[in-house]
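Exam review. A common question shows you a sequence with its structure tokens and asks you to describe the fold in words. Practice with the pair below. Do the first one on your own.
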Amino acid sequence: MEFYGIKNACKLAFYKKSDGSLAAYFPFGNSIAISVTGDSVEATAQGSTIITWAANRKATATIETQVISSKLLTIVLGAITSTEPTGTIARFENGKFGTASPTFTVQDTISSGTLSVFLVEDDGATVISELSSVAGSPTNAQYSIANKVITTHVDNADKNVLCIYAVDGTNLDKITIKADEFAQAYSIKALGKVKTVNGVEKLQEINIPNATAQTNADFTYSASDASSFSFTFDLAADPASMELFSFKSL
């Protein structure tokens, strides 16, 4: 018997059950936790339990990571990936109209007909009023635009402004989660590294022949801490070998 500690967690490869092709390689798993449960069955005689055995063994695998990819999201959410040849991306920009000249210049070229301009409080979010677009000289309730430069009335000089608009783009990556489509089944190979009490490092493989992501998933987006992601897979037995999962060390 050899005793070892886990040195690092897991690199993951997901293979489609439908054709065995590689769906995604994900080298950033912080941990993989496997939980096994089973039902207890009892036979009684004269009101006392005289035989017990286990049945209906089940397992789940939970993957924790602080790094994510669109490929992994597609797998765990049952999402659909696509590329839009053309489309738009929303932009939000805060700033101030100039003091000497009441203008504000946005960073990107505005998609036609998508610009909204608001006067806001110092927090940059509380809307005071929306300015309307005009082709000629604007009043204090209006703005005009030429290329990326927004001009308003001199009464609005040095006031806070919020601009919401869209930017045209090409080859936009899109992930869509539909209410009536769910995750497919995958086989998973997880590769980690262990270190024995003798100081020898070994590779260890976890093989999961049949895994399907649960409908529920947790995402944490944080500005102050590293975002964390947790995904749980239901493991089904391989119909030929009845294997739920296995470990191999090299």
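Now try the second one, then compare your answer with the model answer below.
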Amino acid sequence: MAIELPELPDLTPGEAPPPPPPAVSGAPSLLQTVLATLVVTVMAGAMGALFAVPAPAPAQEPAVKGEPTPGGVVPAASGLFEMPPIVTNIGSPKDTWIRLEASIVFDAKTVEHPEALAEDIAGDELAYLRTVSLTQVEGPIGLENIRQDLNERAAIRSGGKVSELVIRTLVLQ
């Protein structure tokens, strides 16, 4: 593999080198570069302004009575009550502790004393959590099963007055 070098003209000791070849006609001039930069800057500013303006919020449809909406908003006919924290050891292993902080969503028209109802549900949830083993809580499927069990127990204990038990925190230590 040989590298070919361009031939250089023969120069005599006092002779100047030949002038460089003229600029290629396709090369952008300074004016063209400035105009292109200006156009790109204006386009970028317009796109930034377009995305900076928030889109209008879609109209909200009225929620079905007793069901929370997808955004977690509780309908006006429902109530939300924070239950007292539940702290206990679990069934297996005995030295593992669990702390549950939850809220209940209920129909405000049918429940006169939500604090009494929350105490009853908390007692039932405490008894249930003492039977749970660590392997039942592991992973996302275990968490979903615990959530479903707690919801079911809350609905049964309240006689159907509680539509959902919302887990705020669940910590095992």
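Model answer, second protein: Residues 35 and 41 are 10 Å apart (CA to CA). Residues 62-71 have pLDDT under 50 and may be disordered. Full marks require stating both points clearly.
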